[in-house]
Model the fold of this input.
Amino acid sequence: MKVTFSGNNTIKIKDKIHLYYGLIIILVILNILNSYLYLTSDNLDDFLKYLWIIILIGTLVGGIYFLLRKSIKKTYRLSEIIFVEEKDIRFGYNRIVLQLENGKSRDLLGLDNEKQLSEIKAQFEKAGFQVKV
Done:
């Protein structure tokens, strides 16, 4: 992952978020299709029918969340960013999230080690953002 600050108050992010986002969309579409096929079959008992309805609702909620609340743009103006936050995901693995003015958030994925995380935090602090923990 690479983050570059341009002189014209823009930030460019190079990471694999388009690949991850595409895979999530494909999995959501496949899950909806699979739920539809199971729910329209005649030889399904009530328990499995309710289970597939719950899976379908969860998939729709998750898909809508990713479409409406996550951003995957590669270039942002600094004025679009409200704040920068460091989130602890699991077992000491951290990621940086940019909260945008349109209500969406942009995850910076692919931080390999603690050194890269601290370098990116230093870049954002140099640009005038306070990194929330």
